[in-house]
Predict the 3D structure of the following.
Amino acid sequence: MIENIFGIASAFAEETAAVAGAEGEVQQVSSIAALATTFLPLILIFVVFWFMLIRPQRKKDKQVKEMLNNLKAGDRICTIGGIYGTITGLKDDTVTLSVGKDNLSMVVARWAIRNVEDVTIENDAQELN
C-alpha cells in the first residue's frame, strides 16, 4: 500500500515535471508531493484511532456521566466493587445506600456506581435486598 502511495506521488511529480517548464517549479511541486506522501500515513493513522478508540470512549464517558447525574432515591444500583443496594440519599459526591437484609446504611462515592439495575416491584411485600 505504501509503495502504491509513493508510486502515485512519484507519477504525480513526473507528470508535473513534464508540464512545468521552469526547473524551480518542478522542485517545488516534487517537494509538495513528497510532503504529502510523508504525512498521509500519519493522518490516516490518526483518523483510524479517532473512529476506533477516541470517539467510542467519549460516547461511553458521556453515557456514564448522564447516568450518574440522573440518580435518584429508590434506584437499585451496583457498585464497582460488586455491592448491590438501594439509594436512600444523595449528596454532591456521595450516595447513601441501603444494603442487605438488615438494610444497613452504607456511604459510597458517586463515581463508584457501575450501573443502575432495572428492577420492577410486583407488589409492596416484595423485598429488593
